[in-house]
Amino acid sequence: MKHQTSALEQILFTTRLTDLLAWARKNSLWPYVFGTACCGIEYMSVVGPKHDAARFGAEVVRFSPRQADLLIVAGTISEKMGPVVKKVYEQMSEPKWVMAMGACAASGGFYRAYHVLQGVDQVMPVDIYVAGCPPTPEAVLAGLLMLQQKIQSEARPRKTMA
Ligand code: SF4
User: Fold this and answer.
1) Domains of the chain and CATH, by start
2) What is the pLDDT of residues 123-151, one digit of tens each?
């Protein structure tokens, strides 16, 4: 016997609250860009009309960490700047995520020197690393999509092997 879809089922869908929240969060990220060098300039084209981060709900760049849930570290971070960016991270409320944009933020880049932090993950947890010097806007958007997948998957408890 064929399953008959009721009129109610045609207009309603069911989901879990955690999935719904994750869906809303991943599609309305509010970035705070900690731009210190060339990658910060490159980020501007990500939110410009050509690449248009608004398509992914992440175009409302904030200028206060208290209003942001995505910290994008874009540029070289010196040892002296390390505590500053850490303070910015700590001022963001939960849940929050971090993207290391470019070689410098991810690993210090070609600055193998005592005065440069060899990756911002030395002072905070990083969710997404975007490679490049600088990364292309397309690469940053690809990183954003990966982060969205991660946010959605975090809403689901991990399956354990029997
Ligand atoms: S990764 Fe390259 S483009 Fe980005 S801040 Fe470092 S030197 Fe500049």
Assistant:
1) 30-153 (3.40.50.12280)
2) 999 999 999 999 999 999 999 999 999 99
Ligand 1 pocket check for 108: Cβ under 6 Å = no
Buried b / exposed e over 60-94, threshold 16 CB at 10 Å, is: ebeeebeebbbbbbbbbbeeebbeebeebbeebee
Nearest atom within ligand 1 for CA of residue 132: 1
Whole-number Å distance between alpha carbons of 85 and 71: 9
pTM: 0.88
Ligand 1 pocket member 133 (CB < 6 A): yes
Could you tell me if 102 and 35 are in contact, meaning their C-beta atoms sit under 8 angstroms apart? no
pLDDT tens digits along 84-108: 999 999 999 999 999 999 999 999 9
